[in-house]
Design a protein that fits this description.
8 strands, 8-stranded mixed beta sheet, D-Maltodextrin-Binding Protein, domain 2, 2 domains, disordered N terminus, alpha/beta, LysR_subst-bd, Positive regulator of gcv operon, 236 residues, DNA-binding, 24% strand, transcription regulation
Length: 236
């Protein structure tokens, strides 16, 4: 009986990974999907017009053995022994808020001044504020007013409405910062020791479409890193 069940399980996994070569099913961390990938998808489509991306936003790290997903973008430490993982970008959290929140108020000059405002948290990363303030010399945040949201997009939306100060990776909030909808009230940042990774199951042959997406996203990330380094050099 167990052998039969094993054979059914193996056949099911093979069926789920039978390639439709023109399609790539992607499970993507929601913040990365909406704030980085979606604004750049046209770059990929222009270069690969015959490839169809089927995108799913998911905060869960899927098990490829029992999923129809081909690839995924995970947020984490990169320690997934059964997966191939390609580092995309580190995550450094900075405080961001609406400029209208600061109007008519004293300038924020040190980390402790942030406690005069509501701190906006993301539920799955609820220790980041404490870590950032501790490394900036503020050991306790007991007296701070707090507000918690389930996602980065909701937290940034609340910040743009002037409800408080959120933490966000600068790269994922680049549009709002560029257009002045958000500002960084203090030049401090937290290295979260985590990053976004492109991952897929070890032992599974990649289709040409999967290879095309992998090559494209890695090239995009390398180009962004070069631009960032050049901008840093010119600002010195």
């Amino acid at each position: 009986m167990q052998t039969a069940l094993d054979e059914i399980d193996d056949a099911t996994r093979k069926l789920m990974t039978t390639p439709n070569t023109g399609v790539v099913n992607l499970s993507v961390a929601p913040a990365f999907l909406t704030r980085w990938l979606v604004p750049r998808i046209n770059h990929f489509q222009n270069r690969n017009p015959d490839v169809e991306l089927r995108l799913t936003a998911s905060m869960s790290q899927i098990d490829f053995r029992y999923s129809d997903m081909d690839m995924a973008v995970f947020y984490g430490d990169g320690n997934w022994p059964d997966l191939h993982s390609h580092h995309l970008r580190n995550v450094h959290s900075v405080p961001v808020c609406s400029p209208k929140l600061l109007e008519g108020k004293p300038e924020i000059q040190c980390a402790e001044d942030l406690l005069q405002y509501t701190l906006i948290h993301i539920s799955k990363r609820d220790k980041e504020w404490q870590s950032l303030l501790k490394q900036s010399g503020v050991p306790r945040i007991d007296k701070a007013r707090n507000m918690t949201f389930s996602s980065t997009s909701l937290a940034l939306g609340a910040a743009m409405e002037g409800l408080g100060i959120a933490l966000a990776d600068r790269g994922l909030a680049e549009r709002e910062l560029e257009y002045g909808q958000l500002v960084c009230p203090l030049d401090i940042s937290l290295d979260t020791q985590k990053a976004f990774y492109l991952v897929y199951q070890k032992g599974r042959p990649l289709t040409e479409s999967m290879q095309a997406f992998r090559d494209w996203i890695l090239e995009e990330m390398q180009a962004e890193q070069r631009n960032l380094e050049q901008n840093n050099d010119t600002s010195l």
